[in-house]
Amino acid sequence: MSRDKILAALRQNQPELAPLPASMPLQQIEILELQAKFKAVAEGIGSTVHLVDEFGAIQPMIAARFSAEKRILSTVKELVSAAVPEFQFDADPHSYADVDVAIFKPELGVAENSALWLTEAQMRIRVLPFITQHIVMVIPLSSLVPDMHTAYQKIAEADYGFGTFIAGPSKTADIEQSLVLGAHGPRSMTIFIYA
Amino acid sequence: MNTKTKDHPELSELFNQDEQRVNWHDETLWWIRQKRDKSAHGIPEWETLREKASQIKNNALSNLADYLVSFEERALANGIIVHWAADAAEHNQIVHGILQKHGISKMVKSKSMLTEECHLNEYLEKQGLEVIDSDLGERIVQLAKEPPSHIVLPCIHKKKEEIGDLFHQHLGVEAGTSDPQILTEAARQHLRETFLTRKAALTGVNFAIAETGEFVVCTNEGNADMGAHLADVHIACMGIEKIIPKRKHLGVFLRLLARSATGQPVTTYSSHFKRPREGQEMHIVLVDNGRTVQMGREDFRASLKCIRCGACMNTCPVYRRSGGHSYSYAISGPIGAILAPNLDREKYADLPFASTLCGSCSNVCPVKIDIHQQLYKWRQVIVQEGYAASSKKMSMKLMNYTLSSPGIYRTAGKAGRLIMKYAPFAVNNQFNPWYKQRDMPEVPKQSFGEWYKKNVKSE
Predict the structure, then answer these.
(1) What's the pLDDT tens digit per position in B67-92?
(2) Which chain A residue's Cα is nearest to B80?
């Protein structure tokens, strides 16, 4: 059996056990500095960031920005309205192929790279954040962390079937290194950070 | 063992026939290397991160068997089906078997250098199956019937006009189109249709975590996710060296990977697959294909730490001027030149010599692999085992003879200077490999020895 052969060969050839290094120290950064850094990095990689004083300001801004889109879904209950229906689960992922806008509330956002952490619990169906034409993220300021080390400290031993860090709209630079937004996934990403 | 027709110098010469293209290739990659520098310098703890990454990988390799067993146990508990493949052939058969079991004849694939290494596409196509690569760069080289020329930027060697021609032929794009935005949109539509109609998707793996049995796939385009989340069957293929001990170690590697590769702060998507979705079948294939042997070679073991960022290629003066196809192995550039001779010393005997040994590759490597030193060590192994080209052996002997006798060395030097002065055509010709793409230096009137004798010794 290949399994046993591979393991036996490895045990034969492995070097002496090397210890794991100590973890990277966790940074403490003031919250407004985190917000400024997150915004700068996110805009640098093609996202649009809105800082709003209160959650209530988000809904009219979404309505104005996406008034021309046909199918808008919200996985965030508080943002459901006549124009934005609540997410309904359908086990067939193909049924979401015509979604224009999907709204999510990630668990945390990382200032150093503007990546937002979503698990199955928030995305509801795995394909949704990828198949939608535009993606909207709403996140409280208090959910921002400085870097990936703190992010994984928060994620820790969480159980999820699928989780993903998303940093910006889908993109490619495969043709002569020209940056093009909207490769296969969302063409745009709009992030609302609320206090 | 395979014998091949052309070696690195011959293939580079083909690439070098178009001087403008070589300059453009060189400049494009150097620009990416500069973006990497800017990104790395923006992280004050960059060097500490590299050191941590190197140590975590050392630990992972030193305990790989146990970590693999632990990964397998947890992945199984998570509902993932685990396979083990000793070599490329077994890997290909396993993938084929899974597709056959489900009666699937068409598959969509995201980027995986392992499947390139195993020649999976060719194998499946011979069995009558259709494979569509979904990473834009990979799709382009697939349409051109070429292998990727770079592990992160598969079609870095192609001009947009050539891509326009390919898309005109295969995707019905208007003739003469070369705008990257329009070409990308055409590919988006074509591949969206593919994602929506395929029952099976294959992805690569960037990291697999022993502690949790999950694996992580990083892309910018989102193609791995589009494929995997729409398909009934998800097959993930990985080399056994991709294991890292704990989930929290991803914090170190995800900070290094994209910054080293393209200068981005992180890839757009870093997806963590832990369980198949309801009703989906998820497979993982753990592949050896020479890795356990490399583990036993103390001098070359560190090459297994590679996280496939491509930084060594972007910085390599030889890669930038000879192109990825001149390496004739799935993984080109400096790291490929270490990995390839592990699989076949005779076939890839030329690759460790495709380096200036300048050390730039080792300096940018995010996991601190001593790349240029390993290239130097491979050269010694290859010469000792008798795989060096006969011209190289002959010139080495001549060099040895000359350098071991001061008298002959002085005479040869004098003769050389005289020839270059009075009969330059004797060296400035096509038989002298140093003359290619290079001007020969102007000759000094005297050697350093002669100068020293005259000016210093007489004082």
Answers:
(1) 999 999 999 999 999 999 999 999 99
(2) A161
